Amino acid sequence: MALCEAEKTFVLHGVEENFRIDGREREDYRPMELETNIISHAFGSARLRLANTDVLVAVKIEVDVPYPERPREGKLEFFVDCSANATPDFEGRGGEDLAIEISNSLAAAYRSPEVFDPSKLCILKGRKCWKIFIDILLLECGGNLYDAVSIAVKAALWDIRIPLVKSVTVDGNNIDMDVSEELHNCQKLDVTGAPVMVTVCKIGEQCIVDPNVAEELCSVGAVVIAVSQDKFSTVLQKGSGSLHPQTLLECLQMGLSVARRLNEALLETLQQIKPSMNQDVGFLK
Amino acid sequence: KIHIRLASHRVNASVAVNRKVPRIFTPGQVITEQNEFMSRYNGEVGDVVVGRITEVQQKRWKVDTNSRLDSVLLLSSVNLPGGELRRRSAEDEHMMRQYLQEGDLISAEVQSVFSDGSLSLHTRSLKYGKLSQGILVKVFPSLIKRSKTHFHNLYIGASIILGNNGFIWIYPTANNAEDSVGGFVQNLEEVVSKPERETIGRLRNCILALTQSKMMLYDTSIMYAYEESQKYSVAELLIPEAMVDVAILTQDRLIRVI
C-alpha cells in the first residue's frame, strides 16, 4: 500500500503537533486485548490483539541434551510464521525475511541470563534439559508487529506449565525421568525479566510509538528497543533511513519510559487471569 | 495510560434494538437489501467512489476501489488541468504520471461496468479529482447508505466524501471556492490547524465506532455520533466501551427522529 504526498504531509504535521490522526499523543498506545491458554494442546499460549494487529503464540516443550559448553542450561528457540492471512505480501515466501528478522531479534533479546534464566530448565546437569519452542503466528498485520509479538511471547511464557520432574534415575547410559501425571503439578517460569519491545518511529523531527500502517509508511527510520527491568536487552534498527546520534538517544529514552509503562500494564493484566474461572473466549466470538 | 484488557472482558458491540412493535411495510418496499455483509464492493453506474491509483498504464490508470478487480480510469475520462477540452495527444500519455501517480487518491464516479465486473471510472466533473490533505477510513461497503449526494460539507469545519465502495475521505473544508482547475492541484505547504485536526480525528473515531456496531453511515448518523461523542476526548474514543456508548446514543437519537 502506498500513500500520496498529501496524506504523508498530513500525518507529519499531526505528529509535530502531538495530535496523531486518531487523536493519540506521540507516546500513546492503542487499546489491546490479551488472552492466554487459548490452545489446549500447547504447554502455554497467548493471543494479543492490538487494533488491527493479531498475534498468536504457542509454546511447546521437549526434553533435549544441553550444549556441552553450557551443561546447566536449557534452550529456547523462536520460530515466526507470517501467514498469508495477514497481508497479501506474505503470500508464498514473501514473509520469510520479516519472519527471520523477528525471530533473530527475539533470540537476541532473550540471550542474556539476566533476562531469562535458562538454568531453571535444567533437569540433569550435562545430560537432560528442557527445550522450549516458541512458535509465533502473525494472523493480521496492522502496524507495530515487534511490540505485539514481544508482549504475546511474554504472556505465553507466563502461561507456560512445565511438567514437574519428580525424580531422575541414572542407570549407566540410560536416564529415566519420572514426570508427575497431575496437570496442576507444574512448574511456572519467572517472567518479570522477560523483555518487552517498543518500536520508536521517527517521523519528521519527532518520534512516536505504536505506529499504525499509515504512520509506518511515513517514517524514515525506526528503532526497536527491547527493555527488561529498566535495562536494554537489545536494540535494532529498522528501515533504510539513518538516525542522528542525538535522535537515537531521544528514541532510547522514550523507548525506556514507554517500555516501563507497558510492562506494568501487562503484568497488571496478567494478574487478573484466574485459572479457576471459565474465561475462555477463543476465536469464535 | 496503556490499556490491555482480557478477552473475557470484551465489550459486546451489538446495538440491535429489540423491536416488540411490528414495523409496517408497504408493497414493494425491500426488507433486506443485501445478503452478504463483509463482501467486496460491487459497483453500479453512477456510484461515487474514492480510490487509490495502483498502476499507470498506456492510456489509463488502474485504481484500487476495494472490489474484486481493480477499476480502470481512462485518460479520456479525466479533466485535463486548465479545463481544456481537446483530443488527448501522445504528449498527454507521457504526462500521465504528472497528473496521477501510484498512491494518489481520487474521487470519481462509475461510468460503466465491464462484463467481468470491473468498473470504468470518470472524473469529468469539477467536484471529482485528486484528493489533497485528509484521512482515509476504510469500512464495509454495505454500511454506506445510498443517498442523493455523497459529498457533505459539515458545519463543524470538516467535509467528508462517503464513497460507495467503503472508502471514506475526511478533509478540512476548503475556505475559498477553488476555481475550476479540475481538482488536480494539491496544496502541500498548508498546515492544517489543531482544531481542524481534532474535528477530523473525532469524525474518524466516530465513524469507526459506528462501523464496529454495524450501523449505517450517512451524514445524519455521522453528525449525531459526532455530537454524542463530545463527552469523550478524541483519544478516549478508541476504547471499546466509549465506541459502544457513542453507537448506542446515536441509535437512540436516530430512532427518536423517526
From TrEMBL, chain A:
Q: Which GO terms describe its biological process?
A: exonucleolytic trimming to generate mature 3'-end of 5.8S rRNA from tricistronic rRNA transcript (SSU-rRNA, 5.8S rRNA, LSU-rRNA); nuclear mRNA surveillance; nuclear polyadenylation-dependent rRNA catabolic process; rRNA catabolic process; TRAMP-dependent tRNA surveillance pathway; U1 snRNA 3'-end processing; U4 snRNA 3'-end processing; U5 snRNA 3'-end processing
Q: Provide the GO MF annotations for this entry.
A: mRNA 3'-UTR AU-rich region binding
Q: What is its main location?
A: cytoplasm
Its annotated compartments are: Cytoplasm; Nucleus, Nucleolus
Per UniProt, the keywords (alphabetical) are: Cytoplasm, Exosome
Q: Which family does it belong to?
A: Belongs to the RNase PH family.
State the name under which the record lists this protein. Answer: Ribosomal RNA-processing protein 42
Q: Which organism is it from?
A: Asbolus verrucosus (Desert ironclad beetle)
Taxonomic path: Eukaryota, Metazoa, Ecdysozoa, Arthropoda, Hexapoda
Automatic annotation (TrEMBL), chain B:
Which residues, if any, are the signal sequence? Answer: none
State whether keyword Coiled coil applies: no
Q: Which GO terms describe its cellular component?
A: cytoplasmic exosome (RNase complex); nuclear exosome (RNase complex)
Q: Which GO terms describe its molecular function?
A: RNA binding
Q: Which residues form the S1 motif domain?
A: 46-124
**Compartments (UniProt record):** Nucleus
- Its primary localisation, in coarse terms, equals nucleus
Keywords of the record: Exosome, Nucleus, RNA-binding, rRNA processing
Q: Which CDD domains match?
A: KH-I_Rrp4_eukar, S1_Rrp4
Q: Would you tell me the protein name for this molecule?
A: Exosome complex component RRP4
